[in-house]
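If you are new to this repository, start here. Below is one unmodified record pulled from the training split, so you can see the exact layout before writing a loader.
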Amino acid sequence: MADRVHSSPKRGRLLTRHGTGLALLGLLTLALVLLGPLFLDRFTQNVLTRSMIYAMMAITVDLLWGYTGILTFGQSAFFGAGAYATALILTHVGGGAQNFALALVLSVILPMALAALVGWLSFYHKSTPLYASVISLVVPIVLSQAIFAGGSFTGSSSGLVGYPVMKLGAANYFRLAGVALILFAGLAWIIVRSDAGRVLIAIRDNPLRAAYLGIRTQRVQIILMTVLGGVAGLCGFLYANAGRIVAPEIAGFGFGTQMIVWTALGGRASIFGPALGAIGIDYLGAQLSGSMPYVWQLIIGVLFVVMILFMPRGLAGLLPRRQRTAAAPTLATLPDRPQESSKDALLSVTGLRKAYGNFVVLDGIELEVRPGELISVVGPNGAGKTTFLRCLSDGTETIQGTITLAGQNIAGRPPEDVVALGIGRKFQVASVFESMTVAECLRLARATHERPTLWNRASGIHLPSAALDILALTGLDKKLAEPVSGLSHGMRQSLELAMVVAMLPRLILLDEPTAGLTKAERTLIGEVLKRLTQELGYAAILIEHDLDFVKEISQRIVVLHQGRLVMDGPVEEVVNSELVRSIYSGMAHD
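And here is the target side for that same chain:
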């Protein structure tokens, strides 16, 4: 178990100069919403009330699609479920304060339950984004067909109309929708800029690396979909009351597609862009659809295609991007993981066999790794080295044999559970988060030890001394506020290694960490690995082709050839063996 810090980093406030400006803009918008009914006619009030409800729906789509990478058509189903729950209660039970309260509760709870089910179906282990999108596409189709089949109970194709509603009047419905939109947009803006918001972006940009940092990506996706399903249901409650009518179309696939269009045109991952896109398009649609219905739909369709092809950031992309000027976070030292003196095997592999159909990749692998050992795995391309690391770090791989870590069988455990047992994996190609800064990547590596908050972004990062050494030796400690996209290949490799070490794992898996590095960079990585294992007691398994590098840092060398472990012994014995010479000679002639 990693050491806990005794003092947590200071939390930085999100209301910077930029945030203060947005707060002032929010107050101005609030004033316009409250005063709007004084100079807007009733028709405009009704249209803008609906548009502002739609704007909240567009923000939920942006949080799912723009920030978390979940392309969903299902928000219309949750919206429709909330609206119909409200209308059914008020139609068949009646009005009154108690029934309005019941309708409000059901309009949130039922969509949340439906969203949780959809999330569970969509994000089981190894599900693909395409699968999640298909599930979200099917749900509104099924729900709208259920409404059609409901007969007089649901109003079938005619919908429900004439039920009692809250007697607020057009002006107060306008104000209620506007205030709700401002509050929800402000809350969403704070969350996406918090440490928890960085987790959403990590899942969007690189879900595999997020999982191998111990972040339970499926759980986060399901929780987010469930919460936003409840928000969509609340929007449905407002819609059913303000509009005084519900129809099957609001729960269907077409409306779900409209939300995608609003979000894309307004600008993904901007919160305010999708909201303004929804308001603008819906308001203009109300003004123009009567006189030119087909032309208006054609215009929207053409704009959507143009935006996707030439302006992927939507209308928000026309605004200049704000340069990051935030001060670099402070770095604090954590105690390194205590050195383990046990002579028992930390990792034990018995009879490992991995095959894809009739093609056997690994066969009969036996291996034990103890604390403080650095074992290099060598062999020609196609020997099964990377597959071997994947089997060690992902218990859901279909294998024969047994893999135990610290006495725990990893069978059936997804990567985030294996990480919790003490494995950290570095990939062959540096796996980091391109849209983040160096500091944000490092902070995410500590996410399982220091829970990210929804409201703030930490101003400091606690890292073990070994990770700090990597940053200092490579100069990354001077680039904490810089985006990862601007780093060299060698610095990215070093950053990923620092992220893995920051997790305080027991066993580090490294897949060709020196590939593409200069001699100086390879030497630096070698020194870091020797300190981690020989001084600090980490165990490490290294895949490497450079035998000279392997000889300098390893205690043992394991040779894989054609999926079999053909040699396991001391460095000099293996390097000077005729078997290794013949294998590498064969590689030279390939």
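Two things worth knowing about this chain: Residues 55 and 178 are 10 Å apart (CA to CA). Residues 217-243 form the longest helix (27 residues).
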